[in-house]
Amino acid sequence: MKKLLVLILLITFVSPLFAFDFFATLDDEEGLVGTESAKPKELTSLFVEGFGTYHPLDKDDPFDYGISLGVTFEENRDRIRTEVDFSFSPILRDPLSVRTLAVTFFFGPTNLKVGMFTHPWGTSTTLHAVDILNSQDLTQGILDNPEAMKKSEFMIVYNAYFKRSSLDLIIKPFYRPIDMEASDRYAPIDTDNLMGTSFSHGGMEIPIDSDNIRVGIYQHPTFWKALGGGGRFRFGIGDLDLGFMYFSGFYPQMGFDIGAKLKMKPHPLDPTQYIPDKVEVTSIDFDFTRYHLAGTEGSLLVGPVTIAWEGGLFLSEDIKGEKPEKYNTKAMAVVELSYTEPKTSFFASAAYQGQYLFGDVTPTVNQTLDVAIPVDYIASFLSDKPYSSSVAVAFELPLMRERLKVRMAATYGIENRGLVALGSLGYEINDSLSVYARGAYYDGFGDKKSLFKNWENNSSVTIGMNAWF
Amino acid sequence: MKRVFFMLLLILVPALLIAAPSAARIMDLVIDTQKADTAAMDLRLTLIEANGTERERRIQTLSRTIDDKTSIITVFLSPESVKNTRFLSVEGEDATDQWIYLPALKRVRKISASEEGGSFMGSDFSYSDMASTTYDADEATHRLIEETPTTYVVESIPKTVKSYGKNIATVEKDTYLPLKVEFYAPDGTTLLKTLTTLETGTVGTRPITKVVEMKTIATGHTTRLEMLQVRYDVPIPSAYFTARFLETGRL
Predict the structure, then answer these.
(1) How far is CA A425 from CA A393, A405, B34, in A?
(2) CB A295 within 8 A of CB A113
(3) pLDDT grade, residue B14 (50/70/90)?
């Protein structure tokens, strides 16, 4: 970690720095008409963010606060671009967060980017189906910019641009799982109570006993065994942009090999008969699922509205869906309508996302009373439906000559009835100082289980400030 | 009689020879003065509120015109909230295509083209003001309403009224640069904005406005636009006007 920090500092402060400047490509000083050099000197941005959050429903721990210090830096040389973007937040479990540490080499219409960074796939802005190259950080809840929730990963990306088409090829040598809390505020599941109090089986609600579980040692796929890679080809015809992609890699969500037994008890009215008493979970071992994605993305401008879509088949290594610890094959699609008002920069979108799981996703009990709990069943918060869908709406409205920005976004799971609504107001006091207030509302309607129902005590109000130097 | 006619000719011909060009010709010359096959500009916009508070935006814009079709790429350099945003506009046979690259989303989005109006980066300039603050002979009906020893004052009423119903431009005779432009609402009487040239200069032999200020009358908000660097008719590779540059910021 120290070496990384030293490297970042060296790159940041030793190199000569400048951003995009067409005039720097010209040989002479002719055309300089201002009283000062026009070449951008702002090279490196240092920023400080401080915030305080209040969770009114969390009586035990209602307040959070934090501060983070960050550096973003970009240097463009003739054929090389260096980018560094990291932040240091002393209160976080991993204080140093590297969002970008990458070098790009340019060769005519192609380039090669190597390092830690995020690489987006997909054409929609809120919900995605094929934006799978980077795992997510769920330790801070849901943010209104999906890109900000992504974790950088070590990747090698080769981009080639043609007249109206482009190709990107990706190699990911390492495995980086999704970041989530095992316990604490943003833990996706209640670990004290495992997945909930019970699950339905054979028309009965059977309690889960999650005491005395042996949890296996977490060990994710090692170097080269974790190797992932793929490519995407995009092209445009008139107002239509279309892309096709293939990727082979591991799901960032880990799977679970759960050892569980169905315990029986005598029927209270007829002791000669036995009925299910509880499911006793004895062990959890981690597992990982390799998949192959064959997908597509596209967008079409129809009048003032952009129609964007993403879709793909995620072919699991467990093709028949027989292994409960592996994720099943699934098909997923997103359709989004969005509108950008060129006069005001107002942006609004509405999106629908649906997925269908192939194979069995319900728990089964064999003759020796071993219970197989598919990981897809757990991931869908004990839903035995093979399908799920959600809708999302979002808008952004700049006001007061872009000094004030109003943002709203909400996502609702149609089957699990989980809701998250996010809103924020950002106000630019001056060019280097802004303040914001934002709210997050998590809820789950009815008795359905969902991530957002688990987080319903995490609804919050945050105020904060950003300063750049 | 012949003598009288000859005398009239002697008086009138020199007067006709030195008469002012027509208003339409003046406004065409204003446009021609600023016209170039390619242009690269490094601009600073200072947004000044009525109470004097200032905010600053920096952009570089490259444009290229081929067969009367103009392509423009604009790169936003500062402040942090918009840094590295890139905006591409390509004029086609039937319509203008526009794309924007948003660094926060790391994606290029194609958007519908704005015909006119709309604040450019929160400034007092609209997108159409950034392209031109005057109309050429075909776009408006022009009338010379005043002439001084150094300036022409031309009233222009656009043939298709969009954001403005009337412009009154004060044009410097020597350079054909607009020294002042008044923009009126579609009703033709309410003054909306005034553009004032604070400083002029030359690049090579071409006269340019170096510093201009646009003031919105209703709010008192002003935007000062300074040309820090400008180059005309320099080679600008076509690769700047592509999705590649939009996405990578590099040729």
Answers:
(1) 17, 6, 41
(2) no
(3) very low
Cβ distance of A32 and B84 shorter than 8 Å:
no
Structural contact between residues A301 and A313, judged by C-beta atoms closer than 8 angstroms: no
ipTM for the predicted complex comes to 0.80
Q: Which residue has the tokens 């991931």?
A: A379
Name the residue ranges covered by the structural domains of chain A. Answer: 2-468
CATH architecture of A2-468: Beta Barrel (2.40)
* Number of residues written out for chain B: 251
Taking only residues 86 to 115 of chain B, the set having a beta carbon closer than 8 angstroms to any beta carbon of chain A reads 98, 100, 104-107, 109-114
What token pair was written down for B161?
């009224």
Token pair of B78, please?
A: 């500062």
Q: Which two tokens stand for residue A344?
A: 């005001």
> How far, in Å, CA of B239 to CA of B228, rounded?
24
B226-246 burial code (b ≥16 CB/10 A, e <16) = bbbbbbbebebeeebbbbbbb
DSSP E strands in chain B: the ranges are 38-48, 54-66, 69-78, 86-91, 96-102, 107-111, 140-147, 151-158, 166-172, 178-184, 191-203, 206-216, 222-232
Residue pair B226/B44 in contact by the 8 Å Cβ criterion: yes
DSSP A17-69: -----GGGGSSS-TTB-SSS--S----EEEEEEEEEEE-TT-SSS-EEEEEEE
Residue A252: other Cβ atoms inside 10 A: 19
Distance (Å, whole) CA A466 – CA A140: 18
Residue pair A267/A287 in contact by the 8 Å Cβ criterion: no
Query: Residue A193 has what DSSP assignment?
Result: G
Structural domains of chain B, with CATH: 20-248 (2.50.20.10)
The residue whose two tokens read 């500062």 is B78
> Which residues neighbour A347 within 8 Å (Cβ) at sequence distance 6 or greater?
A338, A339, A340, A341, A394, A395, A396
| A200 near B CB under 8 A | no
> Tens digit of pLDDT for each residue in A162-182?
988 999 999 999 999 898 877
- Taking the C-alpha atoms of residue B231 and residue B251, their distance in angstroms, rounded to an integer, is 19
Which residue in the set A19, A45, A430 is minimally distant from B55, CB to CB?
Answer: A430
Beta strands in A173-273 (DSSP E): 198-201, 204-209, 214-215, 228-237, 240-250, 255-266
In this structure, are residues A325 and A256 in contact, taking their beta carbons and an 8 Å threshold? yes
Longest dimension (CA), chain B: 83
CA pair distance A443, A449, nearest whole angstrom: 10
Asked if residues A442 and A452 have their Cβ atoms less than 8 Å apart, the reply is yes
Least confident of A280-284, A296-300, A303-307: A280-284
CA–chain centroid gap for A21, Å, is 33
Average pLDDT over residues A186-195: 65
Q: Give the mutation candidate from A343, A347, A469 for the B interface (greatest B CB count, under 10 A).
A: A343
Average pLDDT, chain A: 85
Q: Would you call A107 an interface residue with chain B, using a CB distance cutoff of 8 Å? A: no
